[in-house]
Specification:
InterPro entries: AAA+_ATPase, ABC_SmlMolc_Importer, ABC_transporter-like_ATP-bd, ABC_transporter-like_CS, P-loop_NTPase. Keywords: ATP-binding, Nucleotide-binding, Transport. It holds the Pfam family ABC_tran. The chain is α/β, with parallel strands linked by helices and about 250 residues long. About 35% of the residues lie in helices and about 25% in strands. The chain has a single domain, classed as 3-Layer(aba) Sandwich (Rossmann fold). The chain has a 6-stranded mixed sheet with strand order 6-7-8-3-9-10, sandwiched between helices. A 4-stranded antiparallel sheet has the order 2-1-4-5, covered by helices on one side. α5 links the parallel β7 and β8. α4 packs parallel to α5. The longest helix has 22 residues. The protein is globular, with a radius of gyration of 19 Å. The structure holds adenosine-5'-triphosphate (ATP). The site of adenosine-5'-triphosphate has 12 residues, from α1.
């Protein structure tokens, strides 16, 4: 279980996070959505330990990460993080890159890890391709693979869909969901587009000007009369109507 509590975090004189509370169970995805500038990346950075704040608590199974000593580390040790801008070494092939992730293991274990994950992440056909020549979807899959290649207690992804086309989004979603379930990790997923997280997350939180103005499961989302949720529901219905019209025509 991941428990996040950020009481107050002042970013600028005009912007602060206030009263943020989220709980994510093992194997579940909590999708945090909000418009640009609502504070999503600031929350992600606090949860992974890249932004230091004292008035916050980040706990994995009751163990506090946000302590004086852990705040000195650039990224909390138990955290897997896929940032918005990926930093993958461009001149390695996919296979070399994966091997590098597990180079401390025995040769046999390395080979087992490589074969298992080339299959699981559907990267077999790209194994000899240099990272600089990969598609956006392949790069995103490799970044996720890297994040889970060490023992972690939580996983945080910041806008993983923003560089992907529709087909890549669908493929990445399905692999991502399967990996989270298999690894049984609580996951915080940051996104600005509700359509990307539909049927992917168990819970959704809506962030507005540094505050969470709705959080719950999809049944609660459907029933909610919160004005921000209603706006999103209308947008979704409009999309559905467009798709229906296209296929009925
Ligand atoms: N290092 C910084 N210096 C000054 N202002 C900042 C800094 N980081 C964030 N902000 C401000 O804090 C607010 C929240 O930014 P944040 O990046 O968390 O939003 P976001 O929801 O992730 O936006 P986006 O979807 O565009 O990435 C914005 O008003 C932003 O300008």
């Amino acid at each position: 279980m991941l428990e996040i509590q950020i009481n107050h975090h002042q970013v600028t004189s005009h912007f602060a996070l206030n009263h943020i509370q989220m709980k994510v169970k093992a194997g579940e995805i909590f999708a945090l959505i909000g418009k640009s500038g609502s504070g999503k990346s600031t929350i992600a950075n606090i949860v992974v330990g890249q932004t230091i704040t004292k008035d916050a608590s980040i706990q994995i199974n009751g163990k506090e990460l946000n302590t004086e000593s852990d705040r000195l580390i650039k990224l909390f040790k138990e955290v897997g993080y896929v940032p918005q801008n990926l930093h993958l070494m461009p001149h390695h092939t996919v296979e070399e890159y994966i091997q590098r992730l597990v180079q401390k293991r025995s040769v046999q274990e390395q080979e087992k890890f490589i074969q298992k994950n080339l299959k699981r992440f559907r990267l077999k056909n790209a194994k000899k391709t240099k990272i600089q020549h990969l598609s956006g979807g392949e790069r995103q899959k490799l970044a996720l693979l890297e994040a889970i290649s060490k023992p972690i207690g939580i996983l945080v992804l910041d806008e993983p869909f923003s560089q992907l086309d529709t087909e890549q989004k669908l493929e990445f979603s399905s692999i991502f969901k399967q990996v989270i379930e298999e690894e049984k990790i609580p996951c915080l997923l940051i996104s600005h587009d509700l359509l990307d997280i539909l049927s992917l997350s168990q819970q959704v939180g809506i962030l507005h000007q540094g505050k969470i103005i709705f959080q719950g499961n999809w049944t609660q989302f459907k029933k909610s009369k919160n004005r921000f949720v209603l706006q999103l529901q209308h947008a979704m219905q409009a999309w559905k109507q467009k798709v229906d019209n296209l296929f009925e025509a």
